[in-house]
Amino acid sequence: MKKKCKKISMGVLILLACILGFSVSVYAKDTVAKVTSKRYSNSKTQYSVISGKTQAGKTVWKYTTSKFTATELDSASYKVRGSYVYLIDHTANNMLYIKLNKQTGKVVCRKKFSSSYNMGGAAMYVDSSGNLYSMGYYNDWIAKFSSKGKLLWKKKINSKYYWPSKMTASNNKLTVYFDGYYNGRVILNMKTGKILSYK
User: Fold this and answer.
1) Which side of the chain, N or C, has fewer Cβ within a 10 Å radius?
2) Contact present, 104 and 122 (Cβ < 8 Å)
3) What average pLDDT does this structure show over 159-165?
4) Whether pTM exceeds 0.85
């Protein structure tokens, strides 16, 4: 009898939602609805813990990044798109491209690049095909990685543009916004990386 009542109650709730014009999201017990990051540091090193959490805040999985020299910026940055979490991490000698399954936290792809690819404090954008665009505070170039972590292109930006704050995209154009001494933006062709304009 109780089970029947529960089914009827849920049916009534959904019917009311349709009539009143609002949506009802029903989450599975351990469905990851959001991803968060917390930084830990001391005078010498830092690292971050990326967590997948339910809508109610229950932690489903955790991913601990590599330890890196402590600076004013996070050594690891991440972006969520669809079913994946895209992560840029650093070790003492390498930059890491990491792709996690959003629901399980499992590493789907991991690629290693030289330390010259430093992307601490990175601004990131992921397109609908899973390509990652990233640029860090400590360098003057921007890179595009495929959904499998392959470097597709790398372009040098005018050095007066630094401290990228965000990226947006429209009509195959990627716009990078900067918050340094020169608050400008750079527009690039997303497919080729060609710099279209500085503003």
Assistant:
1) N
2) no
3) 79
4) no
